[in-house]
Amino acid sequence: MAVILLNCVTLGMYQPCNDQRCTTTRCQVLENFDHFIFAFFAIEMIIKIVAMGLYGKYTYLDDSWNRLDCFIVLAG
């Protein structure tokens, strides 16, 4: 939950019109947080796939919330 909240805060702080080149310290810090958040969610997904299995009954992709989570991580 804390990482989701951190993601919401960093998305709210991002200014796409002002940060086209990302040369400011604020933009670079937000970019580093974005990389950390992506890695965190990707690792979480991989751990759940290893623990539950990928495809079949009662596996990771059997749950529709996990399929949505997988789509969001892969799209990121």
UniProtKB/TrEMBL annotation:
Boundaries of every Ion transport domain copy: 1-74
TM annotation in the entry: 36-55
Annotated keywords: Calcium, Calcium channel, Calcium transport, Ion channel, Ion transport, Membrane, Transmembrane, Transmembrane helix, Transport, Voltage-gated channel
KW Transport (keyword) present: yes
Major subcellular site: membrane
Localization per Swiss-Prot or TrEMBL: Membrane
InterPro entries attached to this UniProt entry: Ion_trans_dom, VDCC_alpha-1_subunit, Volt_channel_dom_sf
Protein name: Ion transport domain-containing protein
Organism this protein belongs to: Pinctada imbricata (Atlantic pearl-oyster)
